[in-house]
Automatic annotation (TrEMBL):
Belongs to the ATP-dependent AMP-binding enzyme family. It holds the Pfam family AMP-binding_C. This is Acyl-CoA synthetase YngI. Gene3D superfamilies: 3.30.300.30, N-terminal domain of ligase-like. GO terms for molecular function: medium-chain fatty acid-CoA ligase activity. Residues 41-423 form the AMP-dependent synthetase/ligase domain. It comes from the Eukaryota.
């Protein structure tokens, strides 16, 4: 009896002392090739199979035609004087030319700088200057919005570029109305490229290494000193491959991809995952439009779809009995945590029974954890899955020590997927990419997470978003999930607002599921019944109310800008206090 109790104690201690460090499988082996070679191999193998559909343009590419077009543009870039290591900027919505340019740059060792279309003209100018783009491709319109005023800020009074180092401004598409018809177009440089021989192109391609940087992605706003992650061919090709494997993508799959190509979600988890697996990618429109997404899924007979919570919410509002989603089976829910209720609704309303979750960040190409299509519903609801191949992860405390399994801490990532660093910014690179005592380089994500005994990871929040109320840590995601279980609440974002007594207090910004909504006390009571009293929102704001706004402030990739909500909440409280005191 005593021996058995001792064994139980020892087993308990052993479980407690297991550390939160994981290593992914070593199979399949990593691919070592560049983007041009990848497309060539798939074109040889799949030739006439459809690789890309851009519905707004009525353009369809086979793997062979996409390859040919990328070669034509590569020649055109060489004719402009673009060489290995030069930066080429693109500011556009999702379209066929964006994809063609991406592979063309990859062929010749140029770096495609994907620019966020939500940038103001000043932010765009700073990003172009910071990345030292030699040429910029821009579109005159994205969706219903004209960008003529943006183009105007990039030109001087003589029609030349106004940004030092930017040699040329070109229109990516020539099928759009603009007053800047005098600008050269992509079609023009393709014509120029006819002077460049096959031999010259082949020689250039042979000099490209899989470990060369092929893509710059800005990770945040461009005020002050913008950060651009340097991603290599090796990074993103392998990451896309492992992503497609977890989704069980095949040549029979057709992926609807609303997320933008200027973000890793659209570019790597969408486009490149379909290229590595011989699948078809469908762009429903050049910018997000829920109705276009539903039409694309039905008319193109899509089997997979990607999205972020804001996209899913907009799509589900439009779903009616006429929509048949029986062919849909999988996709990726990413960008920010997808609430439990939303995941369950997607399974019921859109037939996404095998929808996967993924976790990543731009600096890790992007994905490090992902659920599998055949994981249990509970796993796919509650976690971001298990670690991907050739990747390591650990969770550390504030002193850098690895914490025991089941304990929260900062998530750190290591492996082939790490960025080369931030472009021309060694100081910021050193802040987040740190070698341990064994010489292993780790990316410190800034996200709080916990591992379970089976190696599944749960993201518990962004460390900087944690609310510290009277010295106690409160995790917004936990409250958001509870709020969105309420039948009258469609979406919720929880932030901490300044408070003289507690330092910070909980506030919620809610979106109602219909015209009817619960009163503020019912919202608080709903949270109190499931969580501690201190986690109930003291202040409740509703999207659609005066001064709050008609929609959540979103990043270009669909994430809610919590910093904007914090500022808005603090401002509204100050105004309310001033009114009461007057």
């Amino acid at each position: 009896m005593a021996i058995e109790r001792l064994h139980q104690t020892l087993r308990h201690l052993d479980q407690k002392t297991r550390l939160s460090i994981l290593h992914g499988p070593k199979e399949p082996e990593l691919l070592s090739l560049h983007l041009g070679t990848l497309l060539d191999l798939q074109a040889q193998r799949l030739a006439s199979r459809t690789s890309l559909v851009s519905r707004a343009q009525n353009v369809r590419h086979s793997f062979s035609s996409l390859r040919a077009r990328s070669q034509e543009i590569a020649r055109g870039l060489l004719s402009l004087g673009i060489r290995h290591g030069d930066c080429v900027g693109v500011f556009a919505g999702n379209c066929a030319e964006y994809v063609e340019l991406f592979f063309a740059c990859g062929r010749i060792g140029a770096i495609l700088v994907v620019l966020n279309v939500t940038y103001t003209p000043e932010e765009l100018k700073r990003a172009i200057a910071a990345s030292e783009c030699k040429v910029l491709f821009i579109t005159a319109r994205i969706g219903t919005r004209s960008y003529d005023s943006t183009i105007e800020t990039l030109l001087d009074s003589n029609g030349a570029t106004s940004i030092p180092g930017l040699q040329k401004l070109l229109l990516l598409r020539d099928d759009q109305t603009t007053k800047y018809k005098f600008l050269p177009t992509l079609r023009d440089i393709i014509s120029r490229g006819h002077e460049v021989s096959d031999t010259a192109l082949q020689t250039t391609e042979l000099a490209v290494s899989p470990h060369d940087v092929c893509n710059l992605q800005f990770t945040s706003g461009t005020t002050g000193n913008p950060k651009a992650a340097m991603l290599t061919h090796f990074n993103i090709i392998n990451n896309a491959r492992f992503i497609g494997d977890r989704m069980a993508l095949s040549e029979k799959d057709i992926l609807c991809c609303p997320p933008p190509l200027f973000h890793c979600f659209g570019l790597v988890l969408g486009l490149l995952a379909t290229i590595t697996h011989g699948s078809t990618i469908v762009f429903p429109s050049d910018s997000f439009d829920a109705e276009s997404v539903l039409s694309a899924v039905l008319e193109e007979q899509c089997t997979a779809i990607h999205g972020v919570p804001a996209m899913w919410a907009a799509e589900m509002q439009l779903i009616g009995p006429q929509h048949d989603f029986s062919r849909l089976r999988t996709g990726i829910a990413a960008g920010s945590a997808t609430p439990r209720q939303m995941m369950e609704d997607l399974g019921k309303k859109m037939s996404l029974k095998y929808l996967t979750n993924t976790y990543g960040m731009t600096e890790t190409s992007p994905a490090s954890f992902m659920t599998s299509w055949n994981d249990t519903l509970e796993r796919r609801l509650a976690t971001v899955g298990t670690i991907l191949p050739h990747t390591s992860a650990k969770i550390i405390d504030g002193q850098g020590n690895i914490v025991p399994i089941g304990c929260k801490g900062e998530l750190c990532i290591s492996g082939y997927l790490l960025q080369k660093g931030y472009w021309k910014n060694p100081e910021k690179t050193k802040e987040v990419m740190i070698r341990d005592e064994h010489g292993t380089l780790w990316m410190h994500t800034g996200d709080e997470a916990v591992f379970d005994e089976d190696g599944y990871c749960k993201i518990t929040g962004r460390i900087k978003d944690i609310i510290i109320r009277g010295g106690e840590n409160i995790f917004p995601l936990e409250i958001e999930e509870i709020l969105m279980e309420h039948p009258l609440i469609m979406n919720a974002s929880v932030v901490g607002l300044k408070d003289d007594k507690y330092g910070e207090i909980v506030a919620s910004f809610l979106q109602a599921a219909s015209d009817k909504r619960p009163d503020d006390e019912e919202v608080r009571s709903w949270v109190r019944r499931r969580l501690g009293r201190h986690k109930a929102p003291k202040h409740v704001f509703w999207i659609g109310d005066p001064k709050v706004g008609d929609s959540y402030p979103l990043t270009g990739s669909g994430k809610i800008k919590k910093n904007v909500l914090r500022e808005l909440g603090d401002t509204l409280l100050k105004e309310s206090l001033a009114v009461r005191q007057s």
